[in-house]
Predict the 3D structure of the following.
Amino acid sequence: MHKYRTHTCNELNIKNKNEKIILSGWINKKRDHGNLLFIDLRDNYGLTQCVIDNSSKFFKELEKLQLETVIKIEGTVVERTKETINTELDTGEVEVKILSFETLGQCKELPMPVFSDQEYAEDIRLKYRFLDLRRKKIHENIILRSKVIAFIRSEMTKLGFLEYQTPILTSSSPEGARDFLVPSRLNPGNFYALPQAPQQFKQLIMIAGFDKYFQIAPCFRDEDARADRSPGEFYQLDLEMSFVEQEDIFNVVEKLMVNLFKKFSNKKIKSEKFVKISYEDSMLNYGTDKPDLRNPLIISDLTKIFSRDDVTFEIFKKLVKSGSQVRAIVTKNTKDKPRSFFDSIDKWAKEEGASGLAYFTFEKNETISAKGPVGKLFSEESLKEIMKITSAEIGDSIFLACGKKDDVEKITALARDKIGQELKLINKDEFAFCWIVDYPMFEKDLITKKIKFSHNPFSMPQGNIKNIDFNNPLKIKAFQYDIVCNGVELSSGAIRNHIPDLMYKLFSIAGYDKKHVNEKFSGMINALSYGAPPHGGIAPGIDRIVMLLANEKNIREVTMFPMNQNAQDLMMKAPSEVDEDQLKELNLKINKKNS
C-alpha cells in the first residue's frame, strides 16, 4: 500500500463503501459539533469529508490543528445518509470515518483565508501567493492554463507545426517596449536583452528552411501593468509559416481558436468564420481597433450634418469648422427610457474627461422631431438625413460627441461599451472573434510629428512593390492584422518583409539609415540576403486566452506567480540589491539618485 494515499480526495464514491483507505491533504475546513468533528480534506483534485467522534483518542489532537495543516488519515469509507449527501462534491455520497491520522506539515496562523474565494488585499495575496494558489477558483484557473497549453501543443502538431526553442539572451531592439537588459561578464560594458518576442528568430527559422514553427514562448517587456498585461513577462503562442499569404495564417488560427474555445468553454462562438474588418472601418464604426462584436451598437460619422444651415447647434458647428468631428451612437427603441438614463450617460462621459454627450430621441406626430435638450436645434430635414445615415427609426435615441478625431474616437468607443452594458445588449454567453486588417504601415507620432512604424517594422507593404508611393507613406497599408475576441486583443501578426532593399527603404522613412539597420538588425538583414521565402505569422497571448476562458478580468488571476503593479515580486522580494562583488565581476557601478 502507498505510504501517503490509496486515493486522491476526489476519487471516493459509493463503490468504495466499507473500504479501508489512506488520504493525504490539507485541512480545508473544520466543523466541530461537540461529539463529532468534521474535516474537509483537500488536495489538488478535490475534497473529501472526513469525520471522527469524541470517543477516539485522536479527537482532541485533530480538534486543535490549524486549518491548512497537511495530514494523512487512515479510515473507512461510509455511506452518507440521504439528507447529508452533498451533490456539489464528486465525493458527496460518502465520507471517511477516521481511524488514525498523522501530521505531515504544520501550519502557522494564516495571513489570509484559503477555504473561500472572497476578495482579499492584493499585496497579501501576492506575498503569500503559495497560499492564494490553494484557493479553489485560482487553483482551477492555473490547472485550466496548463490544459490549454497542452491542448494547443497537440493541435499545432496535428496542423503540421514543429516546436522549436529560441534564445532568451539576445540583442536589444529599437522598436517596441523597453528591454530588460542583462550585463555580460565576459564582454564588459555590453548587455544582452531578454526577448520582447522571438520575432527575428522565428523569421530566421523560416529562412533556415523549416516550414512551420511554433513555440509557447516567454516574452519580456519592461512596461507598466494593466488588467490585461503583466509587467515583466508573459507567454504567447508564437507561430510562423513559409510560402503563405494572409489567408493561410487566418485559416490555421481560426481552426485552432474554434477547437480551443469549444474544448474549454460552454459559451457559443458567434461565428466560426471570423469577421474581417479594416482598421479604418473599425476606428469609424467602433472607435477602436479592439471592438467587442457582442455589442450591436455602431458609431456613425455625422460631421457633415453640422455644415447645414437648418442645424443651429452652434457649439458643435464652431468646433467642426475648426477641424473637429462629430460621431453618433443610436440606441434602438429607447423612447420610454427616463431622462435620468440619458443624463447619467452624459455625466459619465464628463467623468471620463470628455465635454459630455448631447442626446435626443426621434419622435413623430405630424412631423418628425427630436425630444431632448438639443432636439430643437435640428430641423425635420436634418433629422431625416441623420436617420438615413445612422439607420435610426422613430422611437430611437442618439448620443452625439464632438472633438478632435482621436479624442472623439476614444470617448465614443468607451460610450459604446458603457451604453451596451447599461442596456444589457452584450451577450455574455458567447465569444465574438474578428480580424482587424489593412493597418497603415506608418503613423505620425503625436508628440514629435515624425513618421514611425505603426505596427511591426518587418511587415510587408500591400500592393505591387514596384508601384508603391513612398512619397506618401501614411497611405501605405501593410499585411498586418490583429485577432480580437470580445474586445480583447489576443495578438498582432503580419506577412513579413523578406526583401532587403525594400526593408532599407521602409526603415529610411521611419528615420533609420542603412548603417543603423545593418547594426541593429545585422542577423536578419544578412540572412534575408541568402534566399528568404515569403513568410508570415502571429503570436496569440496565452494569458489573455486563459483570461477569456476563465471569465477573469485581471491577468494576475490566470498567472501562477505574477508581479504587482510596480513590477515587484513580493513573495521572492525581487527585484533586489546585489552585493559589491557581483557588481565588480560584471564591471558595474550603481549610481544612486539623490533623494
Summary: The mean pLDDT is 94. The radius of gyration is 30 Å.
